[in-house]
Amino acid sequence: MENKTTNVPLIGGVVAAIGAGLCCAGPLVLLLLGISGSWVGNLTLFEPYRPFFILAVIALFGWAGWKLYRPQAECQPGTACAVPQVQNRRKIMFWLAAVVALILVTSNYWVLWIA
């Protein structure tokens, strides 16, 4: 059961970060990919929901960090959280996803410098 629910907060946090950056970084990314149209301007409609996405990012990454950095004494012997190699891989994935989420959440500040 643990293997199926381990990545849920991490994946959810990245999806919420995409939602938080959709209004600001979304149009820039689409234009850089060569995708244009009048509908691209409609992505700014997500701006009022941005605080909710940011709260979801903080909550989900907090949950993922708690699950990742809890004491190994709480892990059952033979489970994935008791294996140091698995823990190291999960920590690397967690911090890479956290950096991506930070970039997306702060996109409304740095996208102005690029555009």
In words, what does this structure look like?
By secondary structure, this protein is mainly α. It has one domain. Helices cover 66% and strands 0% of the residues. It is built from six helices and no strands.
In terms of topology, how is this protein built?
Elements: H1 2-5, H2 8-21, H3 25-32, H4 50-69, H5 84-105, H6 107-114
Instruction: State the separation between the terminal residues, measured CA to CA.
Output: 45 Å
Strand content: under 5%
What would you report as the Rg, rounded to the nearest angstrom?
17 Å
How does the major sheet shape up?
Answer: none
Order of helices and strands: HHHHHH
Helix-strand category: mainly alpha
Poorly predicted runs of 5 or more residues: none
Query: How many domain units?
Result: 1
Work out the number of β strands: 0
Identify the overall geometry.
elongated
Q: Which percent range fits the helix content? A: 55-70%
Separate helix tally: 6
Briefly summarize what is shown.
By secondary structure, the chain is an all-alpha fold. It has six helices and no strands.
